[in-house]
Fold this sequence. Notes:
Distance between the termini: 35 Å
Number of domains: 1
Helix content: 25-40%
Strand order of the largest sheet: 2-3-1-4-5-8
Bound molecules: thiamine diphosphate
Radius of gyration: 16 Å
CATH topology: Rossmann fold
CATH superfamily: Thiamin diphosphate (ThDP)-binding fold, Pyr/PP domains
Structural class: alpha/beta
CATH architecture: 3-Layer(aba) Sandwich
Oligomer: single chain
CATH class: Alpha Beta
Amino acid sequence: MITEQDIVHFENEIAGLFTEGRIKAPVHLRAGRETALIHIFNKYAIGPDDHVFAFWDAHEICLLKGVPPAVLKQAILDGRSIALCFPEQHIYCSGIVGSLMGVATGMAWALKRRGQQGRVFLFCGDMSAETGIFHEAVKYAVNFDLPAVFVVSDNALSVMTDTRAAWGSPDPWFKGTRFETKIEYFKYHNGWPHSGVGKLIKF
Ligand SMILES: Cc1ncc(C[n+]2csc(CCOP(=O)(O)OP(=O)(O)O)c2C)c(N)n1
């Protein structure tokens, strides 16, 4: 069972490797949402049959979904942090904003149609949750009651842009709507910069 401390330790180790110039590719470290993510994994009992879609900031999610820390670390050392994929654990990530909402919904549709075990969980940030494709995917999943949950981690930022200021609302668009039935939402403060460790690294 992965704990909050395991996640913090892992991210700190990756930060150290990045600072030493041993990872020659972008990394997006996260701190401050360990408890919230563990709560969601426990609440839904996310297991081997479930499919997880996420984006550039997926280290914690991969650990919680069952990727062995040493395997994850090697993938990051190989430069794959921004788009981690582990088919064995049903984890598919992308570094492109908005790229996976439709794929995740299609996967949920296929699972339902074939009567297969498993659900789909898509993890994204608050700005990603404002994209048009996120709206469409959630709307479709709610309309057809697909086995999908969209998990929104709100750090109030899109890189360095204040998400709420950009959209002119203190709340995400789905607050108080029927679409919340397929959305898990929480706020957190990211202890790391959007990407990297806050200083230029010379390789
Ligand atoms: C299509 C596309 N446009 C721009 C970017 C650059 N980009 C990477 S992350 C990001 C911000 C996303 O914000 P949010 O969804 O809130 O994620 P978080 O802050 O949690 O990382 C942007 C604009 C990208 N990766 N893909």
